[in-house]
Amino acid sequence: MGVPWYFFSSSVCVYRNMRPGEPEMTEAEAIPANPDNEYGWEKLYSERMAMAYERRYGMHVRIARFQNCYGAEGTWRGGREKAPAAICRKVAEVEDGGTIEVWGDGTAVRSCTHVNDMVDGIFLLVHSDLHGAANIGCPQYVTVNELVATVAEVAGKKIHVKHIEGPVGVQSRNFSNARIYSTSWKPKIFLKEGVQLTYPWVEAQVRATKSRATAA
Question: Which of 1, 5, 16, 202 sits a CA distance of 20 to 30 A from 171?
Fold first, then answer.
């Protein structure tokens, strides 16, 4: 085929819905499979197709399962953004003392990985001997309510939350990072620092959008 190396960006959405605090799952424990949505099934099938090409054609395949990658210059609106960017946008759009809407009761647990750490993990994975999938994620688990509180603190605003019905997704996904740790990768940016790097950029986009709307 003439393609010696192939990198596939997968997702921890391949894992089933889990309870907060449940023992972390390794990459191999995604099978037997039970993703909660079609996106997870698509990623899992694509992983297996990539590994089939590796076996059949001798390609060097590396697969990373991402978890809530966020950071400046990323998607921040339109429904495709990850939770940290969405909360940053909502907080930036309201005045101090304002109210934002959050789907569900805010107790769902997430792990959020800053893009700088993600890029470092991808680089080390691609240059490693790890075959098959490797989780790349921050081991810091936070609830959606804790995420909102962190963004509000960084923004210097008092924010009220109105919980509404909406698609919440899984309650938690607890996954092991042991495989990627074997490459010497470790996350350097935890949630508060990551939000400190991300929120000012999202806030600037919100202000620019409002300015263009006013000028129009």
Answer: 202
Q: Which amino acid is at 28?
A: A
Residue 211: enclosing H or E segment and its boundaries?
Answer: helix 191-215
What is d(CA 189, CA 196) in angstroms, rounded to the nearest whole number? 10
Residue 13: left if φ>0, alpha if ψ -120 to 50, beta else—which one?
A: alpha
Q: What is the pLDDT of residue 109?
A: 96
Query: Facing residues of 109 across strands?
Result: 143
**What's the rounded Cα separation, in Å, for the pair 144 and 142?**
7
Looking at domain 5-215, which of 3.20.20.80, 3.40.640.10, 3.30.70.20, 3.40.50.720 is its CATH number? 3.40.50.720
Cite the active site residues. 39
Q: How confident is the chain (216 residues) per 10-residue block, as mean pLDDT? A: 89 95 95 94 97 93 96 94 96 97 95 97 97 96 97 98 92 95 97 98 96 82
Determine the Cα–Cα distance for residues 114 and 195; give it in Å rounded to an integer. Answer: 9
Q: CA of 143: how far to CAs of 56, 65, 147, 173, in Å?
A: 43, 21, 6, 12
Q: Write the Ramachandran bin of 113: left for phi over 0, alpha for psi from -120 to 50, otherwise beta.
A: beta
* DSSP conformational letter for 23: P
Q: Is it true that the peptide bond before 32 is cis, omega within 30 degrees of 0? A: yes
Rounded to two decimals, the pTM is 0.92
